[in-house]
Amino acid sequence: ADLSRFIAGLPKAELHLHIEGSLEPELMFALAGRNGLTIPFTSADAVRAAYQFSNLQDFLDIYYQGAAVLVTERDFHDLTVAYFDRAAADGVKHAEIMFDPQTHTARGIAFDTVMRGLLSGMADAKARHGITSCLIMSFLRHLSEEDAFATLEQSRPWLSHITAVGLDSSEVGNPPSRFARVFAAARELGLKLCAHAGEEGPPDYVREALDLLAIDRLDHGNRSLEDPVLTARLAGAGMTLTVCPLSNLKLRVVHAMADHPIDRMLREGLRATVNSDDPAYFGGYVADNYVAVAEARGLGRQELATLARNSFLGSFLPDEAVAAHL
Ligand code: ADE
Ligand code: ZN
């Protein structure tokens, strides 16, 4: 209880949060009802019982299915507000939110509908909780480069509201190299660059994300630790890793929380942060992730404070705003 209180009281930024992954089963049911859609479950508990994953793809299949209840601008607004209400209780002061436009545009939902709903939810969060936020538009790597370029094109009217692009979905078999050109185009447009790499994929994918995408931030990055040269390079470059302990456990990136490498990352000089990834699916929001990994690895207050401090250092906030949070 003492540890939980200390963790909730630590001001923190959340840097790895898929807004579609914050869709709780209760809201999923409410949105399905409101939109006249049927879902293949009889209750919120039945939905939770179906969340048994043995790898990333198992999770992605059910996550994309769940996102299908998001139809109207109000749906995206309500989803976003629900996340921020929960994040506020966890001591989140700033959130950099990923969204997957292709998951929605592929179902005939307009890009503008998604953006309007997310942005109005973010404005509400600022007004209600004082939490600042920005958006990371993530490309689905199981789709083509052409599809990613079309998405970048659709985002043009909204570019002043988008801070970065990301790369997510099925990692193995979809290396960063497939998206080098679209990332270069995003960079030209003034966007920051993130990519999921080294979650299930090998250290080579992390190297590609650095060398071919020129990422500003690395999502997950766990498997970098298999390569000492790469680890030293990430540490030397001051690269931020957005690590997600409960996600790592549920998707079997680690076999037990007691094996989680978060403290090893810090000892290797990596700028590691703690994040929730898809909290509605992995059993916890950001503070739960800090608590779970702190208990399993015996982290002390100093290490926890370092992780929280890293979250601001690794954010895309301007330097003055970072300094104000430290
Ligand atoms: N989409 C949502 N969560 C993800 C994860 N952990 N890895 C890859 N794609 C994702
Ligand atoms: Zn993720």
From TrEMBL:
Active site annotation, chain numbering: 199 (proton donor)
Catalytic reactions on record: adenine + H2O + H(+) = hypoxanthine + NH4(+)
Cofactor: Zn(2+)
InterPro entries linked: A_deaminase_dom, ADE, Ado/ade_deaminase, Metal_Hydrolase
Domain Adenosine deaminase: 11-326
Gene Ontology MF terms: adenine deaminase activity; zinc ion binding
Binding site for Zn(2+): 16, 18, 196, 277
This protein's UniProt keywords: Hydrolase, Metal-binding, Nucleotide metabolism, Zinc
Residue(s) at site: Important for catalytic activity: 220
Binding, substrate: 278
EC annotation from Swiss-Prot or TrEMBL: 3.5.4.2
Biological process, per Gene Ontology: adenine catabolic process; hypoxanthine salvage; nucleotide metabolic process
Top EC class for this record: hydrolase
SUPFAM superfamilies for this protein: Metallo-dependent hydrolases
Cofactor mode of binding and number, as noted: Binds 1 zinc ion per subunit.
Keyword Transcription found: no
Keyword Metal-binding (UniProt): yes
Superkingdom of origin: Bacteria
GO cellular component, one term: cytosol
Coiled-coil region list: none
Pfam families, per database record: A_deaminase
Function (record text): Catalyzes the hydrolytic deamination of adenine to hypoxanthine. Plays an important role in the purine salvage pathway and in nitrogen catabolism.
PANTHER family: ADENINE DEAMINASE
Family affiliation: Belongs to the metallo-dependent hydrolases superfamily. Adenosine and AMP deaminases family. Adenine deaminase type 2 subfamily.
Official protein name in the record: Adenine deaminase
Species assigned in the record: Sphingomonas aerophila
